[in-house]
């Protein structure tokens, strides 16, 4: 399955690069407010951060992006912490007063850093995960990062002062990041946990005992449904968000 996904992503990325490079997709830009059109365009923008920024889309479900947009619109001084940077960092920077993002991958950090140069409200921090021979529990199950210790990455949030309105868990070592986020989220804040349908995350999600709102459905860049989960210490925060 992973090889099929990689082959799909590679082919769509190449096709999208050609279409964007020729100007065809830019000329046929999605209609404002059309979720289906924006989703279709995003299929050709997989792993293309510039295209995703132009579409103003994070790589979450479309519904979760709409709800977070609504949530941040009601908080003029919102503070956001993000595990895992990308087009979502720019999306959040346009909507929050402050965005602190941590990234473990050095080349990708350099790419995203160039994209947030015009957003002084963003602090994009490189927190590398060294290779260790020890028995650290802060491990990633991603094949490319096995043997790396993500303890500094997970606890990067503890080096920040105060609480956050929104914490995005969308990088490595997500179950540990979720546990760290629980200590730093405001009572009426939201934790966004992406790709929440994966089996390895279920125990941590169940044990956190927060109110939850699943936004399974159309997902940027993907031809199939995925799940982004919104969690909050206060059930009314999510209920109010849906009622607006």
Would you write up a description of this structure?
The protein has helices spanning 2-22, 24-27, 35-43, 49-55, 62-73, 87-93, 106-115, 151-154, 174-182, 202-208, 235-243, and strands at 79-83, 98-103, 122-126, 164-169, 185-193, 211-214, 229-232. The chain has 244 residues and is an alpha/beta fold. The chain has a single domain (56-243), classed as Rossmann fold. Strands 3-2-1-4-5-7-6 form a 7-stranded mixed β-sheet, with helices on both faces. Helix 4 runs parallel beside helix 6. The chain starts with a helix and ends with a helix. 40% of the residues are buried. The model has no long low-confidence stretch (mean pLDDT 89).
How many distinct helices?
11
Count of extended strands: 7
How much of the sequence lies in strands comes to 15-25%
Helix/strand order:
HHHHHEHEHEHEHEHEEH
- Give me the CATH architecture, please: 3-Layer(aba) Sandwich
The CATH topology annotation reads as Rossmann fold
Q: Within the largest sheet, what's the order of strands?
A: 3-2-1-4-5-7-6
Report the C-alpha radius of gyration, rounded: 18 Å
Mean pLDDT level? 89
CATH class: Alpha Beta
Terminal CA distance reads 39 Å
Classification by helices and strands: alpha/beta
Helix content: 40-55%
Q: Any low-confidence stretches, pLDDT <50, length ≥5?
A: none
Envelope shape: globular
Biggest pleated-sheet summary: 7 strands, mixed
CATH superfamily: Vaccinia Virus protein VP39
User: Please, how many domains?
Assistant: 1
């Amino acid at each position: 399955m992973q090889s099929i996904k990689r082959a799909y992503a590679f082919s769509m990325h190449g096709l999208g690069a050609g279409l964007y490079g020729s100007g065809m997709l830019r000329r046929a830009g999605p209609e404002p407010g059309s979720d289906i059109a924006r989703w279709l365009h995003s299929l050709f923008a997989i792993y293309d951060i510039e295209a995703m920024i132009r579409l103003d889309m994070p790589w979450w479900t479309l519904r979760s992006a709409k709800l977070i947009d609504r949530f941040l619109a009601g908080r003029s001084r919102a503070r956001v912490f993000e595990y895992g940077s990308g087009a979502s960092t720019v999306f959040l920077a346009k909507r929050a007063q402050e965005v602190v993002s941590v990234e473990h991958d050095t080349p990708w950090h350099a790419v995203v850093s160039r994209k947030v140069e015009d957003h002084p409200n963003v602090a994009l921090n490189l927190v590398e995960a060294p290779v260790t021979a020890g028995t650290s529990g802060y491990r990633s199950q991603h094949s490319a990062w096995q043997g790396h210790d993500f303890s500094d990455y997970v606890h990067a949030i503890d080096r920040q002062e105060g609480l956050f309105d929104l914490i995005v868990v969308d990088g490595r070592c997500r179950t540990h990041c979720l546990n760290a986020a629980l200590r730093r989220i405001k009572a009426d804040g939201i934790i966004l946990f992406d790709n929440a349908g994966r089996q390895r995350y279920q125990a941590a999600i169940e044990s956190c005992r927060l109110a939850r709102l699943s936004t399974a459905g159309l997902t940027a860049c993907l031809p199939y449904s995925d799940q982004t989960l919104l969690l909050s210490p206060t059930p009314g925060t999510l209920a109010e968000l849906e009622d607006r």
